[in-house]
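Sample A.
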Amino acid sequence: MPRRGIRQSHEVSIQIADFQSTYLPGDVIIGHVVAKKAFGHGPRTDQTVVKLRLFGRTKSKIVSGSQEKTYRGQAVLVDEEQCIFRGTVSANSKHSFAMTIPKTPQPGVAKTGDSWDKDERGLRGIDKDRNFLSNTQEDITKHSLPAVFYFGDSRALTGSVCEAFVEYFLEATLACPGVSDAKATLPLFIRSHSTEKPVDYNDYSFNVKSFQQITRSERLLPQNRDKKMTFRDKSKRLFTPSKVPSYSYRVSVATPPVIQLDHPAPVPFKVHVAPIMEQNKMICPDGDIRRLPPIELVSVDMELVALTRVRCPGTLGDHSRDKETTYRIPIDEPIALANYNIPVVVQGDLKGPGDEPRDLSERANEQTAPGGSPFLEPNSLHVAVEGAVVPEGLIKHSSFQPHEKGQYFLGTPLDLGNNLDVRLTETKSSSLGGRPTTFEKRLWPSFATYNIVLSYQLVWKLKISCVGEIHTTEGRANVNILPPSEAQGAGRQKIGQDAIKDYEHLTAALNFTSEVGGFLDLLSV
């Protein structure tokens, strides 16, 4: 499915002043339409018209291999034309223009493309951000203008093909009665607006998923911590589990709802353990969470999974195709050697001043509890309920009472993303101690339009160990991929118009590098 490429004819060309590698909605493009030679002939040359058109659209194509049928779809986003000169056109004449890129799809132009109703099929169990937009039932001026995009997928075994793209281009036309029109085209790489500065991930409510785990082992008791498990011990755990010490807890994973590409800070990925206190009386009779056995992180796997959805109109309804693409996030740091203990985070309340421990055994527990100090560690107490205030000064550990509706959280989650320095750009991912992984396909920001949707999920798998017992926890959460902030993108190099020799070559380069300077070498060959 061809895109509109670069065409500078013998009669006419387009020249842009201060040509940019990318443009934003709302930018004004200033330049000239150049007539390379006198255009038209005969008595009507004074009726020659020089026009400039800005056109933007989304196109989709689905080929059903089994039925050998092809379906195509299109949605026009922008179609704006200016008459910049009328009269006799002489050789080497320049005709100036100033074309403003709209900030939203233009009302009225949808009729030149296909009509797209709401996505009735949708995706079960997945939010609306992964559904198509409508240009018939919604106010399109409330939709964002999508950035330039390309997707292609073919399956050799079935012969099926799926292709979709978003494109924008300028088209200059010389028209004179009695003479064939002369045209020139120049594609524009329009990107979406981003935030002025890098986002603060702490401003967002994280997606939290919790998974209950139960560890059963004689090693949960302090006196058996180093005990070698016999066949009898293992059989007891299998046939009489109620007589084996158990530790019940929830592993909670918090992921950000947004990830910004090229962000100067690592991608946050927080993990903590919340013990189920009422079920842990056997191994923690005094309720002191410092006595609970540690839970170690053995390994972690992370991936970003893109879901590209494409649809085309058909006789009885829309035809659609969904395709997942995996972007690996390398975690090469030897997690086990790093000795990452997943911290315990418990919700609870503080006892009043009249509730201090009175008997000697309770005071003894304070002094001998693991961790040494009878006081809470600084900054380990956090507000869980709006309006609560963390007391100043030293707080005794024994004054904290676990309660599922308490005003405070005791403990701080482990930000594994920060510790492992997990980072994402448009072309690669990286982490501490590992080589950056270059993506086979460019990582485009999330967007949704009438016949194309691109959305993402962060997928993870954690392997944890408690007293030698291994458990696996895995899950996924929706995440919105934001383009680099304007501040991050401001330092990117500019590209001159003369560097653009071939549209396909430039697009291929964009698929493999986000640094404009990086693909200049590709274009110069």
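Sample B, a different protein:
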Amino acid sequence: MGDQSGRQQLSHALSDLLARSGMTKSQLASDGKLSRTTVHAAFSPDSPPPSDRTLELIAEKLDADPVPLRNLLAIARNEEAAQPRESSVIRVVTEQSEGVLSTYRVETPPDPRLDKYSFDPLRPENLVRSVVQRLRAGRAYELAEAAYWATKPGIYAIFYTGANQLYAPIAGSPIPLYVGAVQSASGAGKAYSRQHTVGQRLEEHRRTLEQSRDLDPRDFMFRVLFIDDLFMGATIDALTTQFKPLWNTTIEGFGNRNPGKARRLPRPKWHELHAGPDSWAADLESRWDRAALVEQVGHHFWAWYHEDTE
């Protein structure tokens, strides 16, 4: 009994005494002028400890020494007081049986559905989730339109609708190739922009596509949501985690700017795949094998779909 709680030990002790007496719980309730519910609760290890009066009456009717039972009752109450109280439903019930009033507590464990359907819209993760859903639900526009009306900071996602076989797995789908953010102040990270409007940044992306060897900016659409800087970082992280946009992850470099002659860096993966002769990256040192990059793209889409269907 060393591993048992005080309440369990009390329940077993009462059950042993009842068995030795030859009485039933119903007989005990009748002789002790207690309700059957009170007696059954006193014997149940899952119910709260009984009252002092109930325990004394049970001990008297079972012709038992009350002292060991009192000690177990004290242990059970101390253990109950030390446990953190969950949001259980506690009812105080008063019953009258043969002229005797009995008061006891009935405690119902919290229903698991309380947690399942609890929702705090102001929790950070829920706020971010709502932003992601709102962005995905927005209308998609042609990339060239952005410069005319997207004149505020915000987040955006770029989608492909063309016929390039490299991107056939997601062409025309709601899976973004690239996600980014334009903060009202200078941001940090490759997905962020120094410009102050989404339209300016998307126009820069459009020119990058225009200078590519095998992509047409008219085959790209975007969705946008103008939100506070506070939510941008977490939202971009959530979008990247959920969709793993190819140009943010496996094939980096789409959002890079010309580093200038002072910093001659190797050509980024994206420019190795797509940069045309007029691109600022055309003269950079080649570090990647194009065939290997094409293979990486295929593996990326296969892994994403495989993970999504598991």
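Observation for Sample B: The chain has two domains: 6-113, 119-309.
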